[in-house]
Amino acid sequence: MNSTAAVSIFTSRRRMLQALAACGMAAAPGLWAAPFPELRWEALVPADWDPMKSFQDLQKLAALPDSDPRIQRMYDRMRKVWDEAPTVASLEGRQARMPGFVVPLEGGSRGLREFLLVPYFGACIHTPPPPANQIIHVRLDAPVKGFQSMSAVWVSGTLGLERSDSELGVSGYSMKARRVEKYQDR
Questions:
Q1: Neighbours of 81 (CB within 10 A)
Q2: pLDDT, tens digit, 9 for 90 and up, residues 92-123
Q3: Cα gap 138→116, rounded to integer Å
Q4: Does residue 98 contact residue 56 with C-beta atoms inside 8 Å?
Q5: Which residues contact 43 (CB under 8 A, 6 or more apart)?
Q6: Model pTM score
Q7: Are strands 164-166 and 111-118 parallel, antiparallel or unpaired?
Q8: Among candidates 173, 46, 186, 53, which has minimal Cα distance to 119?
Q9: Range from 68-72, 155-159, 166-170 that averages highest in pLDDT
């Protein structure tokens, strides 16, 4: 084989591989998409938000029994501050991957379609819910199986600033999930 023929075969093979690669990229753009960047729970809380400013008068209530009506009013006030917790506007539309625990809202034998993502085990179930800026209302286009209450997960999708209220807590964020995976430490 002469050098001209070898160059021609090499050039043809290279063009064929480039064409195949281009077809593959066009047919499966999700395969070539960048991974979702990890977002920490702390990023959901505005830097200037200090809920304790609203409770500087709590010291004088410390000695009262739980049955005192002033204690109930304090709990109601605390719940209001947490339910109205501010969000971070710059997170609207951001692609993110977040770890957390599942609190099911809508599911069934076909799988889970809607849930709250919370930062710690037991949130919204056995304890008062976290502040609204620490609860994400997750929605999926298609149900996913293999998850139950308090399953540890990674959720990847697009964040929104949508406040919603459920019997389990008020969420300050929403997420249109593209992936839900069992949690595995990296």
A1: 16
A2: 999 999 999 999 998 778 899 999 999 999 88
A3: 6
A4: no
A5: 88, 91
A6: 0.78
A7: unpaired
A8: 173
A9: 155-159
Strands 136-144, 173-182: pairing is: parallel
Rounded to whole angstroms, how far apart are CA atoms 49 and 73? 22
Residues in the chain: 186
Q: Is the dihedral of CA 89, 94, 100, 102 positive or negative?
A: positive
CB atoms within 10 A of CB 75: 12
User: Can you tell me the distance from the alpha carbon of 132 to that of 122, in angstroms, rounded to the nearest whole number?
Assistant: 16
Burial of 21 (0-12, 13-18, 19+ CB in 10 A): exposed
> 113 with 102: CB under 8 angstroms?
no
Q: Hey, is 11 helix, strand or coil?
A: helix
Question: Is residue 94 classed as helix, strand or coil in its secondary structure?
Answer: coil
In the chain, how many H helices and how many E strands?
Answer: 3, 7
What 3-state class would DSSP assign to 140? Answer: strand
For residue 151, the cross-strand partners are none
Question: Which residue is listed with tokens 């029994």?
Answer: 65
Residue 72 near residue 65, CB atoms below 8 Å: no
Question: Where does residue 115 rank: exposed (0-12), middle (13-18), buried (19+ CB within 10 A)?
Answer: buried
